[in-house]
Design goal:
The complex is a heterodimer. By secondary structure, chain A is of the alpha/beta class. Chain A has helices at about 5-15, 40-50, 75-90, 105-110, 140-150, 175-185, 200-205, 210, 215, 235-240, 305-315, 330-340, 345-350, 400-410, and strands spanning about 25-30, 35, 60-65, 95, 120, 135-140, 155, 160-165, 195-200, 225-230, 260-265, 270-275, 280-285, 295-300, 325, 355, 375-380, 395. In chain A, helix 2 (about 40-50) crosses helix 3 and helix 2 (about 40-50) crosses helix 5. Chain A is globular and about 60 Å long. A 7-stranded mixed sheet of chain B has the order 4-3-2-1-5-6-7. Chain B is globular, with a radius of gyration of 15 Å. Classes of the chains: A alpha/beta, B alpha/beta.
Chain lengths: ~425, ~160
């Protein structure tokens, strides 16, 4: 009789050819998908080719997406992209070049992750793919260069699992992104260090796929190793519509155990803002409403979804004169949907500027650099000092509703004023 | 056994502050000149070979690039000890061959400028300035062998002495 296991334990057991695994054990597991963006791909490729001469073992499992650099701003960046293209060509790995979109959206929208699979990536937000019921985690350049590329494998310590049970229905003006930020504030940076997080409960069950997506996105910000949602009808419908195989999908055993269960009732949660200098510095919007911003952006790992443009469009007629309003679709598919829905035109007329599908001003490689005196409110996933220009420039993270309302006023604005 | 002079840092230090993201393609020597400068401008100027970083909770959060521990290693720091680490940073340190040890409460044991000795195998940290010692959970044998081999790549090349079964 093997022990009753949860989704992550079952995936790790199967991938390491064991009947069962227990938290704390170290296993060597087969990797189904390894993903890189232009920065991590460059560093990892160099480490690999310095250490090994042979071609990558399973090139069809490796994918690179140029998302930080959507158009090289200088020769140095152009050289890096050229080197990445040559690496991809030499090893016959999949490449999505500039303009395709944010790494995680591109991977998902090209059906490159199956439920029940093992996904690794150098990007720290890789755990987002747990939305499909996969085991997805971020590992460093040397893990990829040392094991994933040469062997198609990776070592993992089996994490303990914490069940995050979310109940209640938040009031108008509070979106799934606000709930995700709220959880970061409540759990705290490092509050779930090394853990696997299962997002469950009636609130999660009721969310549509792209809103669910925002929950495992935040696992890294509370220090967790991975996050997942147990596949259900919503997951299966999403996958079947896209023609993705569900043959390897796994569910929790009925007696699966959790190290802890943390309950959150979100019935009264107001819109949330993560304030500089860190992602865990989350406050109800009342505490920062009125703060002046010069930039507003829908984009990045946390935004640029079709839903974000819909939300912002609903609260914004025209941006304030002294605000630069950046619109960065997460993928070409999203841009196409935004076109069909009339959102591209409407947000353009509202004074927004459309940028190519990418990860937006994340780390200010192509855009989004700020002076010492500037502040931005965005749907981005990070706000650490120095990521967008001067270390004293301020980045506030919020929902698309709050970003839209703030763009209209030139200051952080409570979107509940605009939402019934 | 590692013994060195202590530099202290606080909680939740992100990799973006360990090495600024606009330097990640620069040579390691250049990165080393800016390591943790926003937290303590004196650090990159005065750090010496064999020094030890003692940090608070969740050291090395944010981006998981192994460049951050490599830049720390390039400053000559021999070991990082913290109340706790962000998991990608912790993993990366072993994979690039930089010894680290986590022990809740270690920041209360030392002050900047003290000398500490760190025993990874036994799981022991001693403030050799005050003589005070704390015990901690020893490092997993798989990770210990990895770091003693100089990191994951040399460890793999020598054929992983244990598959840790």
């Amino acid at each position: 009789m093997t022990r009753e296991m949860n989704v992550v334990e079952k995936i790790l057991a199967r991938a390491s050819d064991r009947d069962e695994v227990e938290p704390g054990e170290i296993v060597v597991a087969d990797v189904d998908r390894a993903i890189f963006h232009d920065l991590s791909g460059y560093i990892t490729g160099n480490v690999y080719e310095e250490a090994f001469e042979e071609p990558i073992q399973y090139p069809d499992r490796v994918t690179m997406v140029f998302d930080h650099t959507f158009s090289p701003p200088n020769e140095e960046q152009a050289n890096i992209l050229e080197s990445n293209r040559e690496f991809a060509d030499r090893h016959d790995i999949g490449l999505f070049d500039c303009g395709n979109g944010n790494i995680h959206h591109v991977i998902l929208q090209n059906n490159l992750v199956e439920p029940g699979s093992v996904v690794v990536g150098s990007d720290s937000h890789t755990p987002v793919h747990g939305v499909l019921g996969s085991f997805a985690t971020g590992v460093g350049n040397n893990a990829h260069a040392g094991m994933v590329f040469p062997d198609g494998q990776c070592w993992f310590k089996v994490p303990r699992t914490v069940k995050i049970e979310i109940t209640g229905s938040p009031p108008p003006g509070t979106t799934a992104r606000d709930i995700a930020l709220y959880l970061v504030g409540e759990i705290g940076e490092g509050g779930a260090n090394y853990d696997a997080l299962e997002f469950s409960g009636e609130y999660v069950d009721g969310l549509e796929f792209w809103d669910r997506w925002l929950l495992p996105l935040i696992t890294i910000d509370v220090g967790a190793k991975c996050g997942y949602i147990e596949p259900d009808d919503e997951t299966e419908t999403f996958l079947e519509d896209r023609g993705v195989s569900t043959d390897r999908m796994v569910k929790n055993d009925p007696g699966a155990e959790y190290a802890e269960v943390w309950e959150f009732d979100v019935s009264d949660v107001p819109p949330q803002v993560a304030c500089p200098p860190t992602v865990g510095n989350v406050v109800p919007i009342d505490e920062v409403a009125g703060t002046s911003v010069q930039w507003a952006e829908l984009g990045g790992h946390g935004g640029g979804r079709l839903e974000d443009f819909e939300l912002a469009d609903g609260v914004l007629e025209e941006r304030a004169e002294d605000v630069r309003f950046n619109l960065v679709p997460s993928s070409r598919e999203t841009f196409s949907q935004a076109l069909d829905a009339g959102l591209v035109d409407e947000l353009h007329e509202a004074g927004g500027t459309w940028f190519p599908p990418s990860t937006g001003s994340n780390q200010a490689i192509n855009m989004g650099a700020m002076t010492q005196n500037e502040a931005m409110i965005s749907t981005h996933a990070r706000n650490f000092p120095g990521r967008n220009g001067h270390p004293e420039a301020k980045m506030y993270l919020a929902s698309a509703l709050t970003v839209g309302a703030s763009a209209a006023n030139g200051e952080i604005t409570d979107p509940r004023e605009y939402v019934q | 056994m590692i013994e060195g002079r202590v530099w202290t840092f606080g909680d939740n230090v992100p990799t973006d502050e360990i090495v600024p993201s606009d330097l990640v393609f620069k040579p390691l020597e250049e990165m080393a000149e800016h390591v943790l400068e926003t937290r303590n401008p004196e650090f990159p100027k005065s750090v010496e070979e064999g020094d030890v970083i003692v940090a608070g909770e969740h050291f090395g959060q944010s981006s998981g690039r192994a460049i951050a521990p490599k830049a720390v290693q390039a400053t000559g720091v021999a070991c990082v000890v913290a109340d706790s680490f962000a998991r990608t940073f912790y993993r990366n340190c072993f994979e690039i061959g930089l010894p680290v040890l986590a022990r809740e409460g270690v920041t209360d044991l030392v002050d900047e400028g003290d000398t500490v000795s760190v025993d990874l195998r036994e799981g022991q940290i001693t403030n050799t300035t005050t003589g005070e010692t704390i015990e901690c959970e020893s490092v997993d044998p798989f990770l210990l062998e990895m770091v003693e081999s100089g990191g994951l790549i040399p460890y793999k090349k020598q054929g992983f002495s244990a598959d840790s079964d």
